[in-house]
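Researcher: I'd like a candidate sequence for this fold, 149 residues long. If you have to choose between options at a position, lean toward the conservative one.
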């Protein structure tokens, strides 16, 4: 299974995406907070020998990145596939999605502490999930996780 979801009911406190091909590879979104113009959350990548965290991924209503949940919902709506790679990008986090045969979606998560001189390192982790229900559930859970009160 490539997407584990969240525990409990209501708004999830975190979202965990585990790679179906290598269960040691996972991405966790957690610690969401919202103010008037920004949504801030933490993203953590783990794999064998790797643990990297960006404690504050900031998405402003003025960013060109748009809504991460809307990006994932768009992927889920196109569960039959799409050509090439689709990208969602902020200063600290880039998510690239590619559709592959057999209905599998490759999600490549690249994390960095910032852009330019601030970005002294970058980490990428790839998770694979099914294009159908797993991707739709991920999109729904991210929408609930990032929802404004």
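Model: Candidate sequence:
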């Amino acid at each position: 299974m490539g997407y584990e979801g969240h525990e409990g009911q209501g708004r999830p406190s975190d979202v965990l995406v585990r790679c179906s091909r290598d269960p040691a590879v996972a991405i966790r979104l957690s610690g969401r907070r919202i103010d008037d113009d920004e949504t801030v959350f933490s993203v953590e990548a783990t794999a064998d020998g790797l643990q990297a965290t960006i404690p504050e991924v900031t998405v402003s209503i003025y960013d060109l990145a748009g809504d991460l949940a809307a990006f994932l919902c768009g992927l889920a709506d196109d569960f039959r596939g799409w050509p090439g790679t689709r990208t969602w990008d902020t200063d600290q986090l880039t998510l690239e999605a590619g559709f592959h045969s057999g209905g599998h979606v490759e999600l490549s998560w690249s994390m960095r502490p910032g852009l330019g001189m601030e970005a002294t390192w970058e980490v990428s982790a790839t998770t694979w999930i099914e294009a159908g229900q797993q991707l739709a559930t991920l999109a729904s859970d991210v929408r609930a996780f990032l929802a404004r009160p």
